[in-house]
Specification:
Blueprint lengths: L5 H8 L3 E5 L1 H4 L4 E2 L5 E2 L4 H11 L5 H7 L2 H11 L5 H9 L5 H5 L2 H7 L6 E4 L5 H8 L4 E4 L12 E5 L14 H7 L5 H10 L3 E5 L6 H14 L11 E6 L3 H8 L3 E6 L4 H13 L1
Parallel strand pairs: 1-4, 1-7, 4-6, 5-6, 7-8, 8-9
Antiparallel strand pairs: 2-3
Helix pairs in contact: 3-5, 8-9, 8-14
Length: 279
């Protein structure tokens, strides 16, 4: 595992660190369902598989031969009369960990200790992050739509960058949703640009193939790469399991440092990194 970079510690101590939390965090712990089986929140792949099944594909891979994941979800939305409620209702039903399990999730508990981080961003639709913060004693405000932005009366804010299950018609999910985001013209885009000024990002719970990563790659390249008078050193860090030279080169070209962790214990490696950062 890569030791916590000294510069990352410094940015945290300065209050200049902006954690960006992906799906891997929500899948980092398990709980028992009503039948007593250990379950986790569904992955992006499982979400698309569910959509493909609802569309009548016996094997989700058959749908992927015809189009990308985002195109499958776009097709699903069209076939459902421009609605995604059937899919988001299923997603909500899969994300119901008891308070005690969520409170003691090792990664969420460690994230709640980041007292110098007043803002957290997430592309996750679930409420795990804000629930865990509250269960561990942090006052938190959630911003998932424009009308919720700008309220600053809590210890920290969780910005739901792709919306949440409380506002299913505004979440970023389909191909057209992502195309809209790539225009960098939504309230959430403007908010992120503002929050990035003077800060560096720490990406947790993302893979190189994650569609959100390509979006954020472009943001760094277009807006924050090699700006005169900007922050020196890395503009961001990303936690990657068993990082390859390919990933290192591609990220570091954009001043995003790669922190390598053991793929056999992603949660433990990430928790250790955060603990080192706090020390």
């Amino acid at each position: 595992m890569t030791p916590c970079p000294r510069e990352l510690k410094k940015r945290y101590q300065e209050g200049r660190l902006l954690p960006f939390i992906g799906a891997g965090a929500s899948m980092s712990f398990s709980w028992k369902d009503l039948q007593g089986n250990l379950v986790r929140g569904p992955s992006w792949e499982q979400l698309v598989n569910r959509a493909a099944t609802e569309l009548g594909f016996s094997v989700a891979e058959l749908a992927r031969v015809r189009g990308t994941d985002q195109q499958i979800l776009e097709y699903f939305k069209i076939k459902q009369g421009n609605e995604i409620a059937k899919l988001t209702n299923w997603l909500a039903s899969q994300m119901t960990p008891p308070d005690d399990d969520l409170k003691h999730s090792a990664l969420h508990k460690e994230l709640s200790k980041l007292k110098r981080c007043k803002k957290f961003y997430t592309t996750n639709y679930d409420n795990f992050l804000e629930r865990a913060f509250k269960l561990n004693g942090r006052s938190v405000h959630v911003s998932a739509i424009e009308s919720q932005l700008g309220i600053d009366d809590h210890e920290c804010e969780v910005v739901k960058f792709h919306g949440d299950l409380e506002h299913p018609n505004q979440i970023v999910l389909t191909e057209s949703d992502y195309e809209q985001r790539l225009r960098f013209a939504t309230p959430m885009d403007y908010r992120l640009r503002s929050d990035l000024l003077g800060r560096v990002i720490l990406f947790i719970g993302y893979s190189f193939r994650d569609p959100n990563v390509s979006y954020l790659f472009r943001l760094f390249t277009d807006d924050f790469y090699d700006q005169a008078g900007g922050i020196t050193g890395m503009r961001g860090y990303i936690v990657v399991s068993d990082a390859s030279d390919f990933e290192r080169v591609m990220f570091e070209k954009r001043r995003i440092g790669v922190i390598d962790i053991d793929g056999n214990d992603k949660t433990g490696g990430t928790v250790k990194l955060l603990s080192e950062m706090l020390s």
